[in-house]
Design goal:
Blueprint: H1 2-7, H2 13-31, H3 53-75
Length: 76
């Protein structure tokens, strides 16, 4: 809150960076170039797998256990 009051109509560094990124994207889109996808070259998704059907079954089992415990506690 103190930073907001102290700014007095000045842009913060974050606002400046976001504005610069938006200007860059606008230039790229206007020139017809495709913006860089930073996740394509990163190792973020390396060695990952999609969620299997076991995850859904596990959620159903956990949900059933939770419901069973609630029913057991309320039945006392």
């Amino acid at each position: 809150m103190g930073l907001f009051i102290r700014q007095n109509d000045q842009r913060s560094q974050l606002q400046e960076r976001i504005a610069a990124e938006m200007r860059e994207r606008t230039k790229l889109q206007a020139s017809g170039a495709e913006p860089l996808d930073q996740t394509k070259n990163s190792n973020y998704l390396k060695d990952t797998e999609q969620t299997s059907q076991r995850a859904g079954k596990g959620l159903i089992i956990v949900g059933a256990i939770v419901v069973g415990l609630i029913v057991f506690i309320l039945a006392r």
